[in-house]
Amino acid sequence: MNRMNTEGLADEWQTLIDGYYRTEPGQRLLRFVRDECSNGQSIFPPDPYRALRLTRPDDVKAVIFGQDPYPTFGHAMGLAFGTERDVRPLPRSLKNIFKELQAEFGGAPDHGDLTQWARQGVLLLNTVLTVREGKAGSHAKKGWEELTDRLIERVASSPRPRAYLLWGAWAQKKEALIREAARGEVLILKANHPSPLSASRPPIPFFGCGHFRQVNDWLIERGMDPIDWVGACYRSERQGALF
Question: What would the mean pLDDT of 60-89 be, rounded to a whole number?
Answer without folding.
Answer: 96
